[in-house]
Specification:
The complex is a heterodimer.
Chain A: H1 2-24, H2 30-50, H3 54-58, H4 66-74, H5 93-112, H6 116-133, H7 140-154, H8 163-172, H9 183-207, H10 211-215, H11 218-223, H12 240-260, H13 267-284, H14 288-298, H15 304-311, H16 313-318
Helix pairs in contact in A: 2-5, 2-7, 2-14, 2-15, 5-6, 6-7, 7-9, 7-14, 9-12, 12-13, 13-14
Chain B: H1 2-13, H2 20-35, E1 52-61, E2 66-71, H3 80-97, H4 111-138, E3 142-152, H5 157-161, E4 172-181
Antiparallel strand pairs in B: 1-2, 1-3, 3-4
Helix pairs in contact in B: 1-2, 3-4
The chains are: A mainly alpha, B alpha+beta.
Chain lengths: 319, 185
Amino acid sequence: MTQVIESTGELAEEIRTGWSKFWFTPRDAATLGLIRCLAGCMLFYTHLVWSLDLTGFFGNTGRINSEFLYDFYRGPDNHISFAWSHFNLIHSPIMMWCVHLVVLVILLLFTIGLFSRVTSILSFLIAVSYAHRVPGTLFGLDQINIMLATYLMLGPSGDAYSVDRWLQRRASGVPLDIPAPTISGNIATRMIQIHLCVIYFFAATGKLQGDSWWDGMALWLALANYEYQTLDVTWLGRWPWLINLMTHVTLFWELSYSALIWPRLSRPFMLALAIPLHMGIAVCMGMITFGVIMLIANLAFVAPELIRILLDRRFRQAG
Amino acid sequence: MLHLACVVIAPLADPPPSSELSRGLARIARPYIQAVALDNGYRFFAPDPGPSHLVRYELHNADGSQRSHEFPNRQEHFPRLLYHRHFMLSETVSAIAGPYTEEPPEGFLSETDRRDFYKAKGRGMILARSVAQYLLRCNPEVGRVRLFTVTHMIPILPDVRNGMKLDDRRLYNEVLLGEFTRGDL
């Protein structure tokens, strides 16, 4: 009995230590900084493309009217809507354009890392506000854009690879060390990692309900979809076993992601497989933005030390 | 931790099927989930990669002439992200209005189910009407718009190996969503 109590105590202590280590070990901002640069580019591009038909999508007299928004967010049970958007307050096209131009500037500043603390919060608010106004036109890209903006706002994403950092270095007159690792940097990175695991988990378990993911023909259904297709790879149909293999690998990879991405041994393998999988979606199915943003999110699992070695000249020289 | 709980609860509760528990929790957390746009199911290409849905529309002028267009349209919508926005819109229109294009057979539904059917149909047509109104505003010379949902089935592998093209006309199935006039504006 004493042994059981002791073992339970040890286990509880191990869990407590592991929990603290997982969440509260300070982390260098290099990973977050790189994700900010890339996700910022994607946020900027996403909103730049809206410019091509801003009033057609967001205007009061656009494709999606307020009656649909009201019904969509309140649902059949007529709940109160919490899907806020600045577009609910702006109705004049000129005003809409003025705000949109300011939005593009803010996203650009966020991307280059100028006034990062403020622009990261504003970028999150912008991404959510735009998404709430056009619910029928969204897809995975918007979900991942918002997910990354949420956590980049929480962590010190402007502490690395940013104009803010460059200005600090210039003002000090001497080469600065890299900023001290922070707990908030670690929490933000952990949140991206966990959220990504949740996304892949539901993407995979949803597929388990479909016959085509079991009979191995799901990839055919995706590749032979004319409206998605940008690169015709239906010639792969000459080898149905290859279609089957690709389907099984895709499902197995998504299903095992939330488990195998954590051990150091399997992580490089999982990250390496993410590249052909998401680039396949990008190149063959015309969803370049979605494929790329998923890869950007996967960077959360790349250690900041490795990113410093690859991107930071001083580190390469020291190495 | 509450945020992470919401990250899990939201896709657990929606889309259906979902448990009473997850729906109950999502109802409680709804203000936060909706405010920070966590209300996503993440079921990419699930349960099966399905057929595409386009929207074809006919613009009828007062003099009796007419022209037909559809969205998404590769030639018209560039870059690809803009094309995809139109594609998602046509998918949404078809998903929420498409199931109610045909009247249920007489005596097939109970009175309650029949009432629910027409209620859902009414909700489903809101977006279709919104799109039609937009088209009428963009084309002042047009008096009437007819909207169709076009389902583009995916050919099976043996058919493609036997020479069927992905855009073979036999793969398209069109259903009228509704007819809208300037009076609907």
